[in-house]
Amino acid sequence: MAFDGVDSGAVAHPLGEDASSTSELAPGDPLFVVEGLRYAYLERFPALDDVDLEVRKGEKVALLGANGCGKSTLLKILDGLLFPDAGTFTAFGEQVTEDNLEDEQFAMGFRSRVGFIFQNSDAQVFSPTVREEIAFGPLQMGWPREKIDRRIGDVLRMLEIEPLAERAPFQLSGGEKKRVAIASVLVMNPEVLLFDEPTAALDPRTQAWLVELIIELNRAGKTIVMATHDLDILDAVADRCVVFSEDHRVAAEGSPATLLHDRELLLRVNLIHDHTHVHRLGNVEEAHEHEHDAAHHASQHV
Amino acid sequence: MSDVTVRAEEVPTPQWLVTGELALCPCGCIGKRKKGSFVEKTLSGAVGVMRNAMFGEDVAQQHGFLQRVDPRVKIVAFLGLLIVTAFVRNIPTLVVLYAATVVLAIVSALPVGFFVKRVWLFIPIFTGIIVIPAMFSFITPGTIVLPLWHWNGSPVGITEQGLTSAGLLVMRVATSVSLVVLLTLTTPWTKLLAGLRALAVPRIFILIIGMAYRYIFLLLNSVTDMYTSRKARTVGNQRNDYKEGQRVVGATAGALFGKAHALSEEVHMAMVSRGYAGDAKSYAAFTVGAIDVLFVVGCVVAAALVLGGDRLLGV
Fold it and tell me: Could you give the ipTM of this predicted complex?
């Protein structure tokens, strides 16, 4: 991967420049605190009901649940794009409300510290070219031109998309669009990265690349919150999982190892089917392709 | 035996799902061939638009003469040449100007056949309809060169003056369209927008056009997918079934509107998430070089020569 040596500092890391240096919080301190959160679409269709959640600095948190349980809605609330009908959301010690985000300074600070990678890359990659797409966020922040150009170059190299810089989004494949979407967020060097179903509709190679990237970003000090139902990658991409039930509440919380062994819980929240078995990556740090023989599949296991 | 097959977890699978359906005779002896419907033609046209746009972007990336000129300079110069074209009153002058656009296309590495076709394919359709009546003596009186019939004893036909007016209009349209095609084919869409922005076109206007252009392709793909999925499930001749066609177009338009609305909400969220607060900022920056100065001087000299020559030729 392009940023080997992040920890050792042997290779200059584009995110290392001022990564998390603005934050006064120490690893393990709560970054996001959500209490008694309720949200309903059109005030009729509930998406979240009495949800409590805490995300600590440097953590990798996975939000698990069946389709429509409210994971994506929660991510949008954590990014200050939707606002709860009831309950509170506190980020970096400040309450995030629609009113607060109207304050330019507060909004700038919050937006630069929290990055959101949408499930639908087509919605996120809206600029005429890849370079302009990556420049969009920094331009809104009012950064100087030289800094923007340098950051764009670094991120393009890091995500191995330099040849795509002048291409239009409609000329890109799904995997390329995902890389561009990630680049457009990473360029702002946020402290928290919110991923909505990051591995959905990606080929296995791109999925493996993304898993490695998430691990490396976390090592570089980023806090990761991810909505997913890809149980195969959980061990690698999450320290802690929050499971949502279909009645839009938190059903359980714990380590991937504990939750993935609780077959009864996963069946109850409709996350798995009776015939499902999960290929867990374990505590590996590099995803890889592997094959099983028929005997492996004959046994039911989680 | 029951008419359902029961699987291990007691979820019934209908019997019809596990048996094959009767298919049509494979020899095709009872089938009828049909031509594509208007829906199909519209969609193939839409796919053509996408292909053309992609080809246009490739051409705009080549290293020809006009591709190296600053987009702002190009926009201003071509606007000036368009105004000059509107003032020219002689066909020979317009022919020279048109020939100059072809030369510019050649030095800008544009395929000449494509460039000429792109201009002349539309002119008979749009301009022809307007100029044909103007050629006749009852619209443009004058010396009749081709009498067609008599009306109350006087001949009615195509007049010399009518032909001159029609020729002038056709050549003026051809030259103007050539100039616009030259500009759009040699400038990537993004740079064209950035150039317009640099020329003080409002930022929000540029942002909306840019996003509309970007999402047209996505929505065109959605339409093509919707139609393909419908076509995959359609059997039989529906050639004259216009009502069905209208229903399909209506349903597709409705579904597309819903998709576009959901997408626009998501795009807005993606923008807000990265700090957008209603005032988009532009990334493009241009510098004027020697080639730009050369191009501007060339255009000014050409404009002076064209207008001077046209005056010498008289009206």
Answer: 0.81
